[in-house]
Amino acid sequence: MRVLFEALLLRPLLTGMIAVRALRRNKLRSSLTALGIIIGVASVVAMVAVGNGAQANIEGKVSALGQNLLIVFAGNKRSGGANTGLGGAGTLSLADAEAIAREVPDVVAISPEISTSAQVIANGRNWSTSLAGESPDYLTIRDWQLDHGAMFSSREVRSAAKVAVIGAKTANQLFGPLDPVGQTVRVKNIPFTIIGLLVSKGAGMGGNDQDDRLIIPYSSAMKRVTGDKTLRMINVQISGQERMALAQQQITDLLRQRHRVAADHDPDFNIMNQKEIADTVGSITQTITLMLGSIAGMSLLVGGIGIMNIMLVSVTERTREIGIRVAVGAQGYDIMLQFLIESVTLSLLGGGIGIALGFGAAKITKTFAGFEAIVSPGSVVLAFSVSAAIGIFFGFYPARKAAKLDPIDALRYE
Description:
By secondary structure, this protein is α+β, with helices and mostly antiparallel strands. It is built from 13 helices and twelve strands. It has a six-stranded mixed barrel. It has a two-stranded antiparallel ribbon with strand order 2-3. A hairpin with a 2-residue loop joins strand 8 and strand 9. The protein is elongated.
C-alpha cells in the first residue's frame, strides 16, 4: 500500500513541486513564455465574441423588420440614364395589394406602402423626416408597439383622414419634452393630428433611424401628400416561417398573372423574403466568426512553439541537474513528468489570464464597434482546452528528451 501511495500520489506531488520551483526561479522567462498563450487565448475569446456580437446585432436588425415578412417591391426603371432602383417603376397598385390579401391563404396582415421624405412643421419648429403611408396592420407586421395613443383605423384609411403616428426622434425634434399626442403637424401645409407615439426602435437595416418617421394612412399619403397612383411596396405578413416559400411563390404567380408577364420574361416586381435574408446573414456572419477565430488561433500555435523552444533550452541548461536527480533515484518517468508539468503549468496559467483579458477586450468592444460582443461558453472552454493540449503536445518532446538523458553523460555535462 505504501509503495502504491508513493507511486500514485507522493512522487508526482514532489515532482510537481520541483517543477513549480523551477518556473519560479526564472520568473521573467516563464512570464514571457506564457505571454504567447495569453495573447492567443485572449484573441480567440475576443474575436469569437466580436463575431457572435456582430451576428446577433445583424439578426436583431433583420428581426426588427417584422415577423414572417415578405416585402413586394415595384420594379425599377431607367430615367435619363439613371436607374431609379426598387420601387421606382410604379408597377404595383392598391388592387394588387387587395388581390394578395384576398387570394393568398397564408396572408395574415398586409400594408400597402407609400414612402417619401417630407419637411414637417410643428410647435414653431421644422424637421425633415421620413413619411410613410401605411395601413392599420403596419405596426402588427413590424411588431412595433405604441408608447401611448392609438393607431389609425381602417375607417380613417377609407376616409383619407388627416391623422398620424409619430416616431420617437421626430417627436423629440418637433416637441421636445411635450407630449406629441393631440398636437398638430403640417406636411406640405396640410395639418395632421398626431394620435399615437411609437416606442423607440433605434437603427434598422442599412443604419437608418427607424424612430425618425411620421406614419399616416396610405390613402392620405396618396391623395393629400404625394399624389401617387401606384405603390412603392407592399408589406405582407405570413402565418408561419414554414409557409413563407409557398406564399412567396403564390404571390409571384398571382402578380405575374395580373400584370400579364409571360413566363419567359422577368417580372416587373421583386419579393424580399425575410427568412432568406436572415439565413444568408447568419451564414455569412458564422463564416466571418470562424475566420476570426481561426486567425486568432494561429497565435496559440505560435505560443505553443515558444513553449517548446524554452523547454528545450531548459533541458539543455539543466542537464547536470537531471543527472543528479537520476543518480539519487529519480526515474525517467519522474524527469518526463517534471518537464510536462512545467509546460502544462505555463499553458494553463497563460490560458486563465488570456480568458480574463479576452473577457475584458470583449466588454470594451461596444465602445468602438457600437454593438455588444457576446462571449460564448463554448469558445472559453475550447480556448482553455486547446491551451492545455498545446502545453502537453509541445512539452512532450522536450520532456521525453530530458527523460532519455544518460545519467553519466548528464553528470559530466558542463
